[in-house]
Amino acid sequence: MDVKQLKKDLIAYSKEIGIDKIGFTTADMFSELKNRLIRQQELGYQSGFEEPDIEKRVTPALLMEEPRSIIAIALAYPSKMNERVEGKKGERRGFFSRASWGLDYHHVLRDRLKKLEEFILTKVPEAKLKSMVDTGELSDRAVAERAGIGWSGKNCAIITPEFGSYVYLGEMITSIPFEPDTPIEDQCGTCTKCLDACPTGALVQGGQINAQHCISFLTQTKELIPDEFRDKIGNRIYGCDSCQTACPVNKGKNYHFHEEMEPNPEVAKPLLKPILKLSNREFKNKFGSVAGSWRGKKPIQRNAIIALAHFKDDTAIPDLIEVLEKEASPVSRGTAAWALGKIGGESARLALIKAREKETESEVQLEIAKSLTYFK
Ligand code: SF4
Ligand code: SF4
């Protein structure tokens, strides 16, 4: 097997199938990452969505027999919508972060990785391959960094010189000893723009993130969002891009290479009030194909309630009262109680008093009691 030639062929083929950047690294252990993950665990900074076994996250040999290399891929996604929403005065909209525009990127990247696998297997039928995107054991970012895709910014994103940090990442462990590429040098320098832009101070100097404070993570939880973060969430109903939009390297980076990634503005920037009334089926029809729907309807509804409170949208009061009175989920009822207090007005106050008599869940009672203090 001529591995050098195969690498060249693979790079050429990756361009043909719409992979914007490809890099190669060894299948060695990610020792530095291991220390960082242990530290993160000790500090309680983890999101809880990650693979719990740190050894698996840093040891390719635990994931596939005889690993000899890892191929990292990156696909650039748009940062601006080509189409605008038809806005009417007074209509309030939420915002899905850019990584949730268009078709769920897991599908798009898996498709590209599958094509790469097929290509490799035509040349080396005995090759062992294992691909992953985001939910795999390995850290996409650690692999991409070591494979020379980009450097790891202080905003904890991989920053490519070509496309900024607006890239999706995926990787494939292989049994082929491809020659590794050289990592890109860190170019953040003395810049701290992302840290300054983070609404919750979730970025810790030195490229660490406290996921428990990060809006991107908080919008994906299923529980009541801690009070201290609700006002900071604004109209983000899924994810947060502030530490990306603030990054000078991302300035002017807006690539529309992939049809599947084109956002439907009515989905990426949806009207807030209708979200409160969606049935499960309606939610699936409207949002089911985007990455931001992976946790289901409830977190998006809760976030839409927070966004309506952010806008102090008093036209939403009847809908919020309906949520408070009829919604089965205590998280939605509790968040609606909080939102009614934030928006204010006599009908909101009376609805809270009425709900106080009937509510049986203690966490919702607490929200109602807190909310009523806003009227004093
Ligand atoms: Fe901060 Fe938002 Fe970046 Fe999270 S995604 S670190 S909240 S700016
Ligand atoms: Fe690095 Fe500055 Fe971008 Fe943060 S904003 S990732 S410090 S270049």
Question: What does this entry show, briefly?
Answer:
The chain is 41% helix and 10% strand. With 376 residues, it is of the alpha+beta class.
Structural summary, described in words:
- This protein has 376 residues and is of the alpha+beta class.
- It has helices spanning 3-16, 31-43, 54-58, 105-123, 140-146, 193-197, 215-218, 227-233, 242-245, 265-268, 280-287, 297-310, 317-326, 330-343, 346-358, 362-373, and strands at residues 21-26, 69-76, 95-96, 129-132, 151-152, 158-159, 167-174, 203-204, 208-209, 236-238.
- A hairpin with a 3-residue loop joins β8 and β9 (208-209).
- The model has no long low-confidence stretch (mean pLDDT 95).
- The structure holds iron/sulfur cluster (SF4) (2 copies).
- Residues 155, 197-200, 202-203, 209, 214-216, 240, 242-243 line the site of one iron/sulfur cluster.
- The site of one iron/sulfur cluster has 13 residues, from α6.
Shape: elongated
Please give the alpha-carbon distance between the first and last residues.
78 Å
Ligand catalogue? iron/sulfur cluster
Radius of gyration, rounded?
Answer: 23 Å
How do the strands of the widest beta sheet line up side by side?
1-2-7-4
Which percent band covers the strand fraction? 5-15%
Note the topology.
Blueprint: H1 3-16, E1 21-26, H2 31-43, H3 54-58, E2 69-76, E3 95-96, H4 105-123, E4 129-132, H5 140-146, E5 151-152, E6 158-159, E7 167-174, H6 193-197, E8 203-204, E9 208-209, H7 215-218, H8 227-233, E10 236-238, H9 242-245, H10 265-268, H11 280-287, H12 297-310, H13 317-326, H14 330-343, H15 346-358, H16 362-373
Parallel strand pairs: 3-10
Antiparallel strand pairs: 1-2, 2-7, 4-7, 5-6, 8-9
The protein binds iron/sulfur cluster (2 copies).
The site of one iron/sulfur cluster has 14 residues, from helix 7 and helix 9.
